Amino acid sequence: MISAMLSRFSHDLAIDLGTANTCIFARGRGIVVSEPSIVALNKVNGRIEAVGTEAKEMLGRTPSNITAIKPMKDGVIADFEAAERMLTHFIRKAHKRSGWLRPRVVIGVPSEITQVERRAVKDSAMRAKASEVYLIEEAMAAAIGAGMPITEASGNMVVDIGGGTTDIAVISLAGVVYGKSVRVAGNELDDAIIAHARKAHNLLVGERTAEQIKIEIGSAFPLETPITMEVKGRHLTEGRPKTVTMDDTEIRKALTEPVRAIVQAVHDALERIPPELSADIFDRGIILTGGGSMLKSLDKRLREETGLPVQLAEDPLSSVVLGAGKMLSDFNLLRRISLD
Q: What region does 129 belong to: left with phi over 0, alpha with psi -120 to 50, or beta?
């Protein structure tokens, strides 16, 4: 009775600690935090000036004493201290109230994360005042969040394209039959656009502009209606601000390599799974989740390349955190699928 009451008032959280974005799901309240994984640090006094959305606004616009840090790289912690401070900030924000609450936390991590990287994520969460930490594979969480029947004896294939990694998994009976994590995802697409602007237009653009170009005119397959965009940046030789017009065709060409790498990883997965599960996937198709999966016509490109039905999850950006959130009310399943 007491434990039932305690769990009813529990403050458990599910966290999708992404390279580009961090989302937090609070039990009973849904998604309470969805902000960029960025910390603005004052180099002079070591103080955190801003976290998340506020820190992203500062990107490329900070005075020399303030530096914008991305604690996550390729889905894992690159800067331990910044990650811890970011997590503490977001957990506090999720609770809005007293600082003495110590929630149980479920965190989604890339499928091929090393023991050392797992330890780093757990330690960061514990120092950010979590009482218990459970790690689950992002692709598994994404599949649950997308509503796939993962406990059935049939193959479910999910491709989760985040900021730092693309996680591909084939799941059956609540277990990952095949799991692969490739470090090509949304950030690589942005980098390819920055390189293209420099090479083709002699234009220097920042990360935020590259992301905007990707969202507005980026695509993985020819579009029915051509689209263009005016892009502002700094001319490399003239050194002054300049505006150029870019179109979807040139950006699609610029994205050829990273998109090909993602498609190839899906092909590899299809070649390595047991034949019985292949038949299931042939019937059910592939579900795409993650922010990177929202690249225009990526589903069409994968459909063309694999010959399988491919569909975008209902809420691709939140699939991982929603799946991890569902685990907060199903501790038996959580124990079965958690990594430790």
A: left
Note whether 201 and 108 are same-domain residues: no
Specify the pairing of strand 156-161 against strand 286-289. parallel
- Tell me: the pLDDT tens digits for 95-135? 875 556 788 899 998 888 889 989 988 998 898 888 999 99
C-alpha 195/C-alpha 205 separation (Å) is: 9
Residue given tokens 């991890």 in the structure block: 324
- How many whole angstroms from its chain centre is CA 221? 22
Residue 293, φ and ψ in degrees, nearest 5: -70, -10
- CATH assignment at residue 88: 3.30.420.40
Give the three-state DSSP class for 331: helix
CA 10 to chain centre: 27
Give the structural domain span for 102: 2-36+79-140+320-337
Strand pairing report for 104-109 and 13-17: parallel
pTM of the complete model: 0.89
d(CA 217, CA 193) in angstroms, rounded, equals 11
- Decide: helix, strand or coil at residue 247: strand
